[in-house]
Every structure is written in C-alpha cells, then in structure tokens.
Write a structure and sequence with these properties.
With about 550 residues, this protein is α/β, with parallel strands linked by helices. Helices cover about 45% and strands about 10% of the residues. The protein has four domains: about 125-280, HUPs (Rossmann fold, 3-Layer(aba) Sandwich), CATH 3.40.50.620; about 285-375, Glutamyl-tRNA Synthetase, domain 2, CATH 1.10.1160; about 375-435, no CATH class; about 455-545, Orthogonal Bundle (Arc Repressor Mutant, subunit A). Bound molecules: glutamic acid. Glutamic acid binds near residues 239 and 253.
Amino acid sequence: MEKLKELASLIFPNVDKTIDDYIKMYPERNLPEGACVTRFAPSPTGFMHLGGFYQALIDYLMAKNTNGIFYLRNEDTDQKREVESAVELIMTTLNHYGIKPDEYEYKGNIVGNYGPYIQSERKEIYHAFIKHLIEIDRAYPCFCTKEELDEIRSMQEASKQRTGYYGRYAKCRRMKVEEMIEKVKAGVPYTIRFKSNGNFEKKFFFNDLVRGMLSLPENDQDIVIMKSENKLPTYHFAHFVDDFLMRTTHVVRGEEWLPSVPIHVELFEAFGVEAPKYIHTPLIVKKEGNSTRKLSKRKDPEATMSYYVEHGYPVEAVIESLLTIINSNYEEWHTANPDKSYLDFVYSPKKMSATGGALYDMEKLNNISKNIISKLTAVELYNRLVDWTSVYDKEFNELITKYKDYTIQILNIERCQDKPRKDYESYESIRPLITYMYDELYNPTSFEFGKINDIEEVKNIVNTYMNEYYSELDDKDTWFNKIKELCDKLGYASNMKEYKANPDNFKGNVADLTTAIRVSITSRSQTPDLYEILRLLGKDRILNRVNNIK
Ligand code: GLU
C-alpha cells in the first residue's frame, strides 16, 4: 500500500485535493424529484453535425420537461486545434435555435457551479481521481511502446483472439510496483491504465432507455485512462469523472458508445457510485435508392447545421423535423396541440426507433417549413426575410428594405386565409418566386404564352384591359367581371361551358386570356393571385412591361 502511495505521488506530485474534496465541491444538486440533469458534450471540431444537434435537442427537452438542468460541456481532450472558435460555433448554433444551456463556459466566463465546463481545464480534477485509483490498486502506469502494443495485437489477430490489453496480455499490470517507480523516475513514458476486475465470460444486465434491457459481457480490458503525451484523460475516464461530479442523471449520446457501456459501468463501480441512465440515440440516416445510409458530413450538405441557417430554414421547422424522428408520437401530439410550444411535448426514450436508424428526410423538412411559413403574418415573414437577407443576400435586402410596405403586401398575397399559399419553403426560396415584382430584378428572357401565342394579340389584350376596364379601386369580383367583359369584347369565351360546347366559335377562353396577361407581366405561367399582382404592379408598370416585349 505504501509503495502504491509512493507511485501515485510520484506520478502526481502536485495533486493536493482528494476525491472527497471534489465530491464536497460538487455536491448533489438540489432539484425537485424527477428533475433530469442532461448535458450536451460535443468535441469541438469546428463543425456541428445534425446528429449532435438532435442529441442536444433531446437533452434540452428532457431538462425542460422536468424542471431540470441542461448544461454544455466541451470535450476537447483530443483536440489539438483552437477550441475557442469551435465553442463559439456550438454556442451560436444552440442560441440560434433558442436552446440556452443553464450552465456553460463561454469566452472565459463560467456560468454554473459545476465547472469548469471545458475538459482541458479540468486536468487536476481527473488527476486526483486517477491518483486515487493508483492508491487503491485499480490503475497503473503502462510502459508498453506502440510497437509492443502492435505486436500484441498482431499476435491476437493471428491466433484469432479478442484484441486488446487484458488478462495475460496486460503485461504491465503484473509489473512490480518498485519497478514502476524506477521507470517513472527514469523518465520512461507511460500511459495510465485502469485495472479491470471484470470477466468477459460473465454477463451483466444493462438498461438502455431506448433499447430496453440488454445483456452485455463484463469489461476485462485494462483501458487507457490517461494519455501519455498531454496527461489528459481519455473519453471513458472523463465521462465518468464529469458526469459523476456534474451530477448528470441522463447521458444522451450516439449509439456508437453502446459497446463502451461495460467499461463505463465498471468505472462507476470502482468508485462505488451509481452510473447515470443512458439513452443511446440511433444514427441519423437518409434514403438512398431503396436503402438507407448514414448521413455523412462529407457527402451530405444537410448533415451540417450551418446548412439550415444558410438556406434560410425557419428555426421551428428544423426543430419540428427533428422531433418527428425523435419520437414517433410527436406528429400526432403536434396536430392535437398546434399552438403549444414543443417544450410541452414530453419526450419518451421508448418512442425512439431503436433499430434501423432515425430517417431524416429533406422533403419532410420542406413540407414542415412550408406549413410554418404559410402561418406567419406578412409582417413576421418580412422581418425574418430582412434578417436572413441581411447576412445571406445583401442585394435583395436592400430592395426589400427600400420597398418595405410594397414587399409586405407581396408577402401578404394569399396569406392569412383558410388555405394560405405554401410555396415558400425557406427564406431563400422567396426571392426567386417573387423576382418579377421588382423592376430592378425583373429581366425576362422568354415568354411561354400558351394558347394565345401572338405577341401583338397579347399586347392588344393587356392594353385594352388597362385602358378601358382597369381601375385601381376594383375589388376582386369586379376585376374578374371586367376580365369576362373583356373576353366577350375580344372574342374569347367568358363561360367555360359555352367554350367547351363550341370551341371553334372563340379565339380561346378566359383561362387562356388570363394566362396571356400573367405571362406578359411576370414571364411565368404560374403565379399566385393575378388580381393581387396586377394591383401591386399598377397600370404604368404593367403597360411598360407589356409594350416592351419584343
Ligand atoms: N464527446 C463525445 C462525442 O462527441 C460525447 C459523447 C457523450 O455525449 O458522452 O462523441
């Protein structure tokens, strides 16, 4: 025992706090019964994956559902690059979606009593816990070189054994403490390994909240808990220390961590404390042909959170699209409670798909987004469009701020009615759908008039209408009655029945005529309400456009 203490002090000469000191510093949280403490623990890579955000959303929802705590922890123990800007990206992304961690560390500022929340700043805490493990003979320095470890692995592979540092392969585990002390003194590089007591032949039961009860083999690997080069802990050990001290009740993380559960359970047991509950989230997958595949950072632009901001998807649409894959009953709940905040929805891990991944579908996002945009008032949409264009489309931003009221009226076409228009699927999609409303942007290259394919006739229609019938004061019914009168005057059928009975008696029908007007002033065969477009463009601009068609 004395020798182990000597070894521990030799390795950590500056650690002056004990694990009991830390347990006192980070006491159990004083929260109501059932309150969940969750965390989002990304590695700051400078990239935010949709899959990470979806986990954060679950964390946030669970904490809000239960009046608990949601905190942000940055796991930078593998990080060789600048962390600051990566942390900034994570914070701004969460903020953009209105997800505010209760505790976090940002720009040198620590909010919350369980920090620091950046792992590289917690080195001495990890060291105190590792020191304790060495003292109680549950951890040891391993001096094996990379070559030696490679050799062990090759041997295991050749003889079809399980690979890893365990049992008889765990060479340094059997080294005498005196020899360890000598080597450390001599400056031989080492990692620290956990001394496993597990037996791979034995199984234990583990309850994953998504998948239910699973039976897993015990861990028997002496895993590395502290790296040699920077003395930082590995993920496994940092997970134990941080989630224990920060009093996390539920760990929401990707299913790739499921095989590591036996290690984590053994670590918690070694300290005699209870492990948190685990929610291993299925991978986000997308359809490709008849099968599905993992959403890939490299191949799929929609795998990155910045994609949704850049393309102007409403915050609510992205959240809703993820909630539909988070819980199978979300859509039903949302339909029954259309006016409630999603935070009132109670997340249930049991209602996550445990196998086959969570299928993310851009078409679904687009539909959700169209619905959400269709329900905004014109002023709300205008304000969002101004915000978005101020960053992503400066030219359009200038135009819509110059013509504010006019733009609001354009956005108001077929809005605030029983069946509002649903063609805007993002803020980005708006400009191409309404370019023709702005002379500065209108630059038609061709006109597909349809049946009335004679430019002089089209000009005649529009000029006659504008000069003899049109009035700014016309309401929609009057407008349409006048269009019918115009038909009668120019030899087009104003009545479809009559037209169908005797098509040869007419030059065309009222639909052909309105198409000709529509195309002549917008260069599109499909637009929303023509009456509104005519009203907003006004006589002068209409005549100008039509008479300039070559
Ligand atoms: N830093 C780990 C990752 O990004 C976090 C896993 C966890 O949430 O525990 O995969």
